[in-house]
Task: inverse folding
């Protein structure tokens, strides 16, 4: 999360009980500049580059034992949302909601981006 130079970027997690064995946590990213909502165009214009970076990161994480749904590339592309990001001092962090690309036990999966 970031609060610097007139930019405020944060995320809000909310827990939703859906009636099954487990509820689900849903994350919303919110970024503001000078009091106005800010959407990063780079998240849409670099969509393919971001998705490739996420897939590469997942492959590295899988070699360390993390579990993701297969085929990884299909799920990363299907559930990519350019509004699912927040800013930190290190840059942009993209995220995927629970149970979209990894098991429930993985929670919300985050990916620091290099653009």
Result:
């Amino acid at each position: 999360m970031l609060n610097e130079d007139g930019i405020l970027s944060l995320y809000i997690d909310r827990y939703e009980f859906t009636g099954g064995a487990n509820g689900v946590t849903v994350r919303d990213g919110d970024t503001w500049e000078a009091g106005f909502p800010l959407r990063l165009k780079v998240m849409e214009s670099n969509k393919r580059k971001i998705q490739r970076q996420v897939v590469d990161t997942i492959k590295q994480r899988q070699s360390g034992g993390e579990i993701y749904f297969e085929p990884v590339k299909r799920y990363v592309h299907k559930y990519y949302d350019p509004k699912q990001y927040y800013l930190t001092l290190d840059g942009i962090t993209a995220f995927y909601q629970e149970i979209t690309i990894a098991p429930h036990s993985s929670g919300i999966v985050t990916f620091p981006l290099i653009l």
